[in-house]
Every structure is written in C-alpha cells, then in structure tokens.
Predict the 3D structure of the following.
Amino acid sequence: MQTTEDAKGGRMSTEGTRPEAAADQGGRAAVVPGAVGGADLVIENVSKRFAAFTAVDDLSLTIPSGSFFALLGPSGCGKSTTLRIVAGLEQPSEGTLRIGDEDVTDLPSHRRPVNTVFQSYALFPHMSVLDNVAFGLKQRKVADAVARAKEALELVELGHLANRRPAQLSGGQQQRVALARAVVNRPQVLLLDEPLGALDMKLRRQMQVELKQIQIELGLTFVHVTHDQEEAMTMADVVAVMNHGRIEQMGAPRELYELPKTAFVANFLGKSNLMHGKVVGRDGDYLQVEAAGGLQRVRADRAVAETGDVVLGVRPEKMRIFTAGEETVPAGHNRLDGTIVDASFTGVSTEYLVEVPGVGTVGTFTQNMGQVTGKAGEPAVMCWDPDFTFGLAGDDDVAAGAAERDA
Amino acid sequence: MRAPASRRPEPAENLSAAEQKAEKARGRIGVGLIVPGFVFLLLFFAAPVFVLLAMSLYAKPPGAETGVFVPAFEVSNYVVALSEYWVPLLRSFLFAGIATVLALIIGYTMAYLVAVRLRQHKLLAAILLVILIAPFFSSFVLRTQAWKQILSDEGFVVEALRFVAILPEDGRLTATSIAVVAGLTYNFLPFMTLPIYASLERLDTRLLEAAGDLFASPMTAFRKVTLPLSMPGVFAGTLLTFIPASGDYINATILGNNRDTAMIGQVIDSRFFKIVDYPMAAALSTVLMVVILILVMAYIRKFGTKELF
Amino acid sequence: MRFKQRIGRWLVPVLGGLAFVYLLVPIAYIFVYSFNDAGRTNLTWQGFTFSNWLNPCGAPNICDALGNSLSIAFVATIIATVLGTAIALGLARYKFRFRKLADILIILPLATPEVVLGASLLAQFLNLGWELGYWTVVISHVTFCMAFVVVTVRARVSALDGRLEEAAGDLYASPRTTFWKVTFPLLLPGVVAAALLSFAMSFDDFIIANFNSGTFDTFPKFIYVAATRGIPAQANVIGSGIFLIALVIVVTGTVLSYRRQKALAAR
Ligand SMILES: Nc1ncnc2c1ncn2[C@@H]1O[C@H](COP(=O)(O)OP(=O)(O)O)[C@@H](O)[C@H]1O
Ligand SMILES: [Mg+2]
C-alpha cells in the first residue's frame, strides 16, 4: 500500500517545481477525512436504443464500492452511452440502475449522487477555475464551498491558478480542474469518460498515476471509460471489456490478460497468436489439440470447450524462438515451425513475424541478451509452456478486436 | 540600426530597422484600407452632426419669412425644446424601454427555441430561422399598416378581447399607447432575436449537461450557464432595439394618436417639414442623440462586454 | 414533480411557437389582402381576386417607387459593402495611431437613431445647397449601412485563423495572392451576410429617405403617403412577392446546404 507521502513524492517529481504543494499538509489532510467511500453501483439489464440502433445491449454490472473500475472497448461500442445512463444524462430504454440500496433509474441527473469528468472537460468558460470547482458545492448549499473548492484545487496542485479562466489553462491543467470539480463533491460514484484522451502520451502517463493515487486517497468508486487497454490495465482493479454494447469479459487486469475467454478480448487486450484446432484426446489435466500440423496441449481448465473444434491462443511474450536446427524445445512444450518474414530490432528486444503453415503470421519477441537469432527468410522454431495456452470457442473469429486495438 | 536599450526600454519599440519598416508598411496598408470609408464618414456623418449642432443654435431674425434662419448662438432654443417637449421625449424612452424589454422576452424565447431546443432538428430550425429573418423582407411601413388594420375597432382582435371582457365594450386598441408599444416591439424584434440567436447557437450544450451533473436543476443551469454565456447577444440586441425604437415615429404615427402617444421623432419630423423650424428640430435631435449616448454609455459601463464590437 | 418537469419541457416550445405566430400575423394579413378585390382602398374585405397579382404595377407610380428603392438599395449596398469591408480589415488587422478614435467614429452611427441621422444629413445637404433626390438618398443609406457592414465583417475577421495566412505565405503565396486566395474566400460569407443586411435595411428604410429624398419617391415612402388615403392592394402584392422570393431563396439555400451536410456526414 502506497502512503500519501509517496503519492505526493511521485507527483512532485513528475510535475517538477512546486514545493509549496508538498508543504501544504493541512489542506491535503483536511480533504481525506471527508471521504466516506462510495456505494455499490448496480446496473441491471440496461439497454439503450437510438431509433433502430442498439448502443447498449442488455448490460448487467455490479461495481463494488471503493473500486477503480475500467470500462474498456473500441470507439463506438457504447461506453459513453453507458456512463451517460449512469449519470442520468440519458434515459435507458430498459433496465434499472441502483446506487447502494436506492433505485436511481428515474432520478434526474441533478439529483444523483454521481459526478462526471467529461471527455471535453466541459468547464464553464465564463467562470474562474475556483468558481467552476465550487459550482456543485454551491448548488447543494454546502456551507464552506469556497474553502473546500480551494482544497480540491490544492489536491490537483492548481491552487495557484484559482482565479484564472479555463481558457487560460493548458490541456493538462484543464483536465485537473475537471477532475477537481467532480471530486470535490465526494460523489458515491465518479464517472470519467476518456478523461485523458486529449492529452499527449507523457502527460497521459503522469495523469494516470495521479488519478490512481487520488482514488486511493479518497476511497471513492471510480468508473473510468477508455479505449486504451494499457491505461485500463495499469489503473483499474477491475476491467470490463465491452464490444457492441455488451460486456465480453470482466475481471482483474492480470486475469483478463492471462486467460481471455473470447478472441476479441485476446486481441483487444494485448496481442495474441490464435490458431484453429480440434480436440483429439486427453492427457491428464491437458487437452490434446491437433493444430498447426502438430499436437498442441492446453489445460482443460483454461479452455472454453473440451471437445470438438477449438481456437488455441498464446501471448507473444510467452514464446521462445530458435533458428531451425538449433532449437532446444523442452519435453511437453508446444511447438510451431515456420519461416521468419520480418525481424525488427528495437534495442530492448527483437520482434519477429513468423509465417507458420496452417496458422498464418505469428508474432513473438526475444529480450536482447546479446544473442542473434534469425533473419528474414530463415526457418525458425517456436515453443512455449502449454500451461500458458488458452482455449477459445472453435467458431470464434480469430481476427476479432485486432483492428480495433490498433485503431 | 538598433536604438540604444537605455533610451527605449519597451521591448515592443525595440525593433530592428527591418522590423520597423515592415511594421510601417503594414500600418500604411491599414490606413489605406480605412481612408476611403473614413473620408465618407467624415463628410456624411461627422460633418452633418456638426452642422446639426450648429443649426440647433441658429436664430430667426425678426420679421423673416418662414424657414429663414441666421447663424447665431441661441442657447434658448434648447430651453424651449426641453420645456415644451419633455413629455414626448420621456415618452419615447419609456415606450422604447418597454418595447425593448418585451422584445427581449419574446426574442430570447424564440432564439432559445431555435438555437438550443431544436438544435438536433436542423431543418425545422432552419425554417424557423427564415421566419425570424422574414420581417426584414416585407416592408416595415406595410407591416405597421397591417397591424393597424388587424387592431382596428372592427377587427377580430378587438372583438375577441371585448368578448372575453379584457377590453371594455367601447375599448379600442388603435390609437393607444398599447398599440404603439406593440408595434415597436414587433418591428424591432428581429434586431433583438438575431444577435441572441447568434450567441446561443455557439453555446456548447455539453456545459448544460455538466451543470446538471453538478446538481444544478434545468432552471439553475439556465440561470448560471446559458444566460451568462448569451449576454453578448442580449447586450447587442437590446442596443440594436432600444436605439432605433427611441427615435422611431412610424409606429407612433400609424398606430398612435396625436395627443398622448406622440414620440420625439414625430415632433422632430413635423418641426422640420410642417412648421419648418430647423433650429428647434435640430435642437431636439441633438437632445435625443445626447441622451441616447449617455444611456448607451452607462449601459456599456454597467454590462458591457469586449466581445460586442 | 413530474408535472413541473413536463411544464418545463413544454413551456419554451409553446411560448416560442406563439411568438412565431405573432411574427407571422401581419405578413399573413398582407398576403391575404393582396387578393382583395379592393378597388381604391384596401381596408375591408371586398372579395377574392387574382387581378392584383396579374397586374402588380396597376396602382399609379407604385412600380416607379419600387424601381427607385431597388436601385438605391443596390447601389448603396455595393458602396457600403466595399467601404465597410475595407474598414473592417484595416481596423482588425493593422495598428496605427488614432485607431481608438477611428473605432468610435465607425460605431457612432449605430448609436444614432434614424431621425437624427436623417435630420443631420438633411441639414448638411441644405447647407451644401445640394438638390435632394436619388443621390442624397444613396449617400444617406451608405452612411447608415456601413456601420453594420463593419461590425458584421469584423466579427468574421477576428475569428479568422491567422495561421492559415502564414501557411499560404509558407507555400510561396505573395501577400496579394494570399489575400485573394485565402483571406477573402474565408471572409466571403460574412461579406455576403453584411451585403444582404445592407440591402434589406436600405430597401426598407423610410425615415432617412423621408428626410433626404425631397420629391423623389421610394417604395416605403409611397406606402406611407398612400396610407392616409388607403394603400392599394398592389402594394400588398409587391410586399408579399418580395417576402416570398426571399423565403424561396433562403429556404432553397438552407435545404441545399443541409443536404450537402447530410451527404458529407454520410460519407
Ligand atoms: N444521441 C445519439 N443518437 C444516435 N446514436 C447515438 C447517440 N449517441 C450515441 N449513439 C451511437 O451509439 C453508439 C455508441 O456510442 P458511444 O456510447 O458514444 O460509444 P463510445 O463512447 O464507446 O465510443 C455509437 O455508434 C453512436 O453513433
Ligand atoms: Mg465515448
């Protein structure tokens, strides 16, 4: 568990030049006791249709109180619509919504204990930064609204810009104001709709760390929408992968990554090598699968189906690659033979694309330990521990999600 | 040649010769662009206003014919103008003020409907926008005359109002202050609505969602977000309505009577053309202009925004 | 609660709709009475006829007045648009001494009621000994349209992205080419809007023309004078006709641009 002190140190080092923020212990400490944690958010059979188009399709989710929950999916899959339904900005066509024990389905947005950090930030251009942050508190007639708003600005280290107008801030600063404006209300659920989308890569990584730390400090429930799988995995306790208005799979990031249940998740959340095969027998805990012109093994408890057609998958980094003839394949490992079509040296590693008959192009890489494994055009052998293999339904589309990931 | 920094410390002035030359050339283009229009305005706006000021001080030589005046410094013209015509003068501002407030309410509602509520319905909004602009294209005088007919004693509006007893049996609408104010409101409505529409159209409705998300009811969101952001339009619209309305006399002439609805424009017009008392007409014009300028300045001081012009 | 919400939702459309009806009432009246078989006075309904529409110039002098107004509006619009656009560019883009003063001189006509403008121009023309007629009306209309042109175009100039001009310069365009190929096309919608506004205002102006036209007749003046005797139904025909033409032009333009936007969005 990270301490508050560490958190601040981390932000300081990335941000650079504001010793007074670290000195302001009192302000920071005063914010934390106000945090009472959140409440469970329960979405039950919610659908949303726009004319004939179904944007959210019979979605059910329970987001536990105090968790950092990420809703991950390609653009257009219905993430924003889901968030807007939770925020009360959109009425669901069907289904109910509960926060804690209260049914909030029919509650207008201004009566919901929910706040949003909008993708466009939606800062009020005619108000100062401080007035923006104090807005929600003033609406609820909180007595020390301005003092609390100032504390929230200190929390995002913008105390010194309180009197500026939003237009006079940089993108990253505006993003922090939007965050402060939502967080200051201590909502039971905080919704973040791709809040880092407009920031450049460096600022984005920095903000990811800060957001996570603020969530831990305040103990609020965060629902974070993103199409960036790396962002979802680094930040969230629980990730739900969404596609075409439905949840494909939900779980802890490592769980999703190591054991995807659909080709879409396997491809969208990191890369995977997938191949069609057929279960031909059983060997203790393992299924024997005929695939890629050989016999591969997968643990039965890591396969979606135990008979008939299956799709086998393995993550690129789990594989090892050898020049043909020099291979040392441990007994019982799965093995693929092919021809290198591309080898690109990136410094830390070398990435290979290998054409395997009956499978297609397989990707893998080797860490740079000084070795030189192969060049384009040379035959190669790849192998991996069968415990890393996962089995998907035989009729799954092996290309699903790959294009969306790279988009 | 660079000027010594000690003598010219301002960085803006501290330009190289090439920069200064470029700056000067740009300045010359700018001056060249505005000179023709400027000369025109000097000749046909500034000079006429000056002539008007001068004329307002002319005197009528004893025994001269109608319409003959000599240059003088007859300040008493203003005393007469104010003492005799303070009633229509005040009435002009009163009527124009009421008409401006009414036009603001009506125009804001229309602009809001088209620019915010119907934002998703592009075609309907476009058609309503045409109707907003439409009065511009049918003659002002003709429309006012039409109102006179519609509000006439035999018209159905008066009969309907009499029927529901809003108007007494012998009550009428033409030749009343109500008719004049209604006409002013109607005729200057597009000048109010269009600037408000222009500023509401730029309103980012996501800000209203944000306000709702931050516990503001729709009404509060309107008060705290929509209204402040549309203020430049409201500001321009009120000025564009109030100024011409206070000087207008078509509505007062067509829809009013000669006794208790006379506005200052009517007086100026009749001084000029019927009575041929140029100094008095000029003095009244000057008073009107000065009062409007004072009111406008005060208004800009109080509510002014830089975005207006 | 629910009830209150529903009222809130319907209040603006209902009130706004009523306002639109209010806006259209006299226009509808003018249109209906253009079909009145009126004879000399068009005050009461005498029966339906197409004859006014078939013979819009039937009333004495009406079409002369209309022609005068159109001609004046056309000439005044061109002069006001050219001078006003140049001023807008000059004021928004270039720095020179007396700019604040120039700003004020240009805005002042907007703060001047038409009677005052008309009266002062009349005083000036009397002073100069010019004969009142076509050109005095044109001049006075230019004066009062120009400020509107400056304000409209200037808003557009300020909204221009200066980087586009820099990009054009970077791509070897001379300042002159840059102006005509980049700046001007971007300003054009504003200039066109300003010109349309000028035309409408000049065409519809009564007060200023009344001061500065002498015996020369314009369309609004014709109606104003006729009103004392009864406006001929042909005036309603012309008023409705102009309105309908404008409506058709604007609606066509809107529908076309709407279609184009839809087509672009569909792609
Ligand atoms: N108001 C609306 N009307 C019609 N279609 C909509 C509307 N809002 C969203 N959609 C459609 O619903 C789908 C999901 O949108 P959204 O939830 O914004 O996706 P995401 O946030 O995951 O990118 C999209 O295909 C979008 O076009
Ligand atoms: Mg989205």
User: Anything to note?
Assistant: The radius of gyration of chain A is 25 Å.
